[in-house]
Amino acid sequence: LFELGRFEIQGLASLNAVPSSSSWTDVLIDIGLVLLFTVPHSILARESSKKALGNRIPRHLYRSAYVLMSAFCLLMQMVFWRPLCVWSVWDLRAVYAATPILAGLFLCGVFLVLGSCISIDLADLFGLRQTYLFYMEKPYTPPLFQVNMFFSFCRNPTMT
Questions:
Q1: Are 127 and 61 in contact (CB under 8 A)?
Q2: Which of 62, 74, 81, 123 could form a disulfide with 13 if both were Cys (CB 3.0 to 4.6 A apart)?
Q3: What is the pLDDT of residue 32?
Q4: What is d(CA 39, CA 70) in angstroms, rounded to the nearest whole number?
Q5: 8 Å CB contact between 138 and 119
Q6: DSSP assigned state of 120
Q7: Using the 8-state DSSP alphabet, how is residue 53 labeled?
Q8: Could you tell me if 116 and 110 are in contact, meaning their C-beta atoms sit under 8 angstroms apart?
Q9: Distance CA 85, CA 88 (A)
Q10: How far apart are CA 22 and CA 24, in angstroms?
């Protein structure tokens, strides 16, 4: 089930899945899924959306709701994604020298994600800290952001 970064869950579409049909319907479904995924990331992150939803979603739950909606949209992409072509974009199974290189790149990616997670406050990013402070009746103060490690050359989601 695990092969060089490709992770398959029973019932979910795979990048290597054979398309059931190559039609405009598949293209439209994939475009719709991409647009669905952009809604939380581009619209709900704006101040005007936060103000509009302020009377429906309590302020201390807004970030958690945002993360939940984003995760749901990503799950929809994984479940309903349709492969568009019958030919392989790249296939390196016959190139044995590529296997350790790809495995090394995959491990670099895993360590990059883990290192990034260690250097930021994930409880604040996911909205858990805001909810905890609300129920403890303490005021929310954003954590001090320090540009370190990977974030000295790439943008962090908490920089907004």
A1: yes
A2: 81
A3: 92
A4: 8
A5: no
A6: S
A7: T
A8: no
A9: 8
A10: 7
Secondary element (H or E) of residue 6: strand 6-7
CB neighbour list of residue 68: distance below 8 Å, 6 or more residues apart: none
For residue 65 the two structure tokens come to: 């709701």
pLDDT score, position 5: 44
> What's the token pair of residue 17?
């899945």
pLDDT in tens, 99-152: 788 889 989 999 888 887 777 778 887 888 888 998 899 998 887 767 776 667
Q: Does the model's pTM come out above 0.90?
A: no
Q: Which two tokens stand for residue 118?
A: 């260690």
Q: What are the structure tokens assigned to 113, written together?
A: 């994600």
What span, in angstroms and rounded, lies between the C-alpha atoms of 119 and 152?
11
Cα–Cα distance for residue pair 106/98, rounded to 1 Å: 12
Q: What is the mean pLDDT of residues 81-98?
A: 73
Element holding 129 (H helix, E strand) = helix 128-135
> Which amino acid appears at position 88 of this protein?
S
pLDDT at 82: 83
